[in-house]
Amino acid sequence: MTDAAARAGWSRFPFLSFCWAGLILLLGAGALAAYLVYPRLYGLGPVVFYLFLAALAAFFIILGGGLLLITVTSLTGIDLLYPHGKPSVTVRLLFPIAVLLAKLLRFDRSRLMASFVKVNNSLTIAQSKRIKGDRILVLLPHCLQIDVCNRKITNDISNCMRCGRCPVGEFVEAGERRGLKIEVVNGGTLARKRVAMWRPQGIIAVACERDLTLGIQDVHPVPVYGVINDRPHGPCVNTCVDMDNVDAAIRFFRKS
Fold first, then answer.
1. What average pLDDT does this structure show over 121-146?
2. Rounded distance, CA 161 to CA 202, Å?
3. Which CATH class is domain 131-254?
4. In whole angstroms, what is the distance from residue 246 CA to residue 148 CA?
């Protein structure tokens, strides 16, 4: 394993480990609930109690099985995800618990969310055979535009003058070369509207860890390749992005 591959593997560890910890806590809470309700349910009849246990067991088998498939797919690159094209109940349930555990343990929230983005990207890459690259939407944050520029690009990115003072011009040129639809958005609401309007087969999203995490969950099951931006001047102002990472995302969807 190369150093880069090892680092990529470790970058997924925080999110996956907190999810597994959350599952264990849920399992403990379920066992406690079964113990507490046992006298009342058993009093209604053994069948009622055993049906309750069966439903509880089925819930944890589905949840644990889903997390296992996500973990193995993320770490090996073998597409084991099921069901395809459906919202992930596992992530919906375990993500808030993982965030809460990280907060209690004072683990950096941005690192956890960055780990989530890495896991998501690995799952997207694993599904490459099932992803068509005909309609690709690139979503950019408005903060990539230099703050002294007065060009209105949220309605039409072609209004960019391509002066080279910010990365937006590079995206315009890349979009023309590779046939990509590129939209600059100033919030999650507008991003969701653009996704609903264009109905893409894949999304390349550039944003901070928080916006990527929320956006990936909002548009699921549309495959998203997230690229975390750089913020040398602080959040939401004159941000930049490593174009090599963006190019890797484009090459993934375009298969070239």
1. 92
2. 27
3. alpha beta
4. 24
